[in-house]
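PROTEIN DATA CARD
Card holder: Purine-cytosine permease
Chain length: 473
Origin: Sinomicrobium oceani
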Amino acid sequence: MEQTYTEEEIAGHTTSESGEYEREAVPRSKWKGWKSFLGMYAGEHAAGTEFVIGPLFLTTGVSAFDLIVGLLLGNFLAVLSWRFLTAEIAVKYRLTLYYQLEKICGKRLVTLYNVANGVLFCFLAGSMITISATAVGIPFNMEMPRLTDTMPNGVTWVVIVIAIGLVISLIAARGYDMVSKAANWMSPFIVLAFLLCGIVALQQLGVSDFSGFWDVWGAGSDPFPGQIKFTFWHVVLWSWFANAAMHIGMSDLSVFRFARKASVGWTSAAGMYVGHYMAWIAAALIYAVYLRSPEVQTMLAQGEAPSVAPGPLAYNTIGIFGIIAVILAGWTTANPTIYRAGLAFQAVMPKMSTFKVTLLAGGIATVAGLFPAIAMKLLDFVALYGFILAPFGAIIVFDHFFATRCGIRKFYAEKTGVSFNNAVFLAWLVSFGVFYFVAWKFDIFLSFVTLPTWLCCGVLFLVFSRYYQKKGQ
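Structure generated from the sequence above:
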């Protein structure tokens, strides 16, 4: 789910300092073809989170049709979002998300966005540390966190999480080039591990044909204690918006600004169908093996929720190779996520060195990793993550496609020198507040209201912009 390849751009850096064109369009000489993106997307979406997301689908009692067909459709909608929104706008302006937002929103508002982005990155990285800890803890016979656990379950858990967090933070603080290269080197290894997990799990389940594969999930079941029941539309909308911040939220403008043409956006399909389809289903299969064990059957009979700790699940399937894969999958995604969070915080504390803010981000992520609830509730957290950040992408989309038609000025903050565009902030605040209240009041899963929130934010942005621009803000 998490992308580790994006070189983070924070408004304020100059080309001469970083060579990444943070505050100008990428020149034609730096444009790249589809081959530069295909492997990148395929590898980087087979991340540590996939080891948890697959099993979590089973805890929701999902059926075979809902999972297999729902993931096909949901991931296809995500690809369409990347192709016709993100890539289309990226090749038009060839600017980073941060700089394009700054042109519309103003520097002060973008700073607030970076704080929110940084905090959410830290919590996501914390879940990666949790995932790696479940693998590191196997040789120490560590008690694994259960699905319903919220707090740390012992001293061993705390020590291992802190140790992993410290190592990851120190490596991330040394710079993005090293961690991104390492992630790309290790990605094929991780993808292979997912594939092997799926093949071995099918053998352990006695599956020899497609009907047997289909019967692994069958008609579904009741959700585990503390989980909600997933239907076809839960699967479709969740898989569509698992990376909402990246596509309809426009974060991947920073990636596709290097693309020769918008059609390169189709390469996102490699990530969706290698990582978000094959890897999720493979991870679900190894959990299906675990669910058939006498130990788990006893737990379920007693109304208890079994663990979804990926370390033991992968170890029981492919042995030491599984432990290594889980550690690396968590490591290769937590490292750059912490690095990106640190740079986001640096927008607020520009005088603090990158090394120090990255360590700060790593410290927050490590504390978050101590609490298993984030990883155990990853479906809910990812839905919240996209729900919060995606509407900012609507600002960019509606400014690009509808500003001229609606009689408002594009890139308003840049043209007027406004540092805090009230129209943008109010559009996000109202849309977020209304739909979050609706979801809370009527117990609606957030993925169901992400698209309405996004559309509402875009429309309100146009309405408020007409008002404020006529008023002169």
